[in-house]
Amino acid sequence: MDKKTELENLNKKWMEECQCELKKTATQAVPGDGSPEAEIVFIGEAPGRSEDQLGRPFVGAAGKFLEEMLSAIDLKRENIYITNIVKYRPPNNRDPLPEEKSACREWLLEELKIISPKVIVFLGRHAMNNFFPALQISQAHGKLLIKVFKGMSTKYFFPLYHPAAALYDGSMREILMEDFKKIPKIIKEIEKRQA
User: The Uracil-DNA glycosylase-like domain covers which part of the protein (predicted)?
Assistant: First the structure.
């Protein structure tokens, strides 16, 4: 079975089985989107209003900014994979609660297992803290993290500020753009280590 079919089956299964409380208030699930063969997986926090309506991650203002940054490093959205730690929109875009994150965790881990990317890019502190609970995004952004997780082939992680945060704060936008431009170098570094 190819990765695309595996992901489709996985999403169908979890849309039925996921016990996340947010299911009750969201319009629909927002599974990951993009290339099943991606070398880079971006993980955000949770779907917002546009995502909830369209059923695709990062289609609102933050998504447009993400696409702008991707094009700055010669990447297209269809060559990467993008998902969220929580697959349903929290009411009024509030932060996802710990129990909502844990209800969607297996879904995320299984997505990552199928894709098996070279690097996972965290968009914001919620995504990063899901894997590195003690780190602070203000200290970790733009630095390559290496950690082996049981059952995961990927051990390279790269935290960034969330694109939405940069939309509200101009100084953060510059930092995010600078960090984002390190991604191609990081891919080369990982390839060297794996050679």
Answer: 31-181
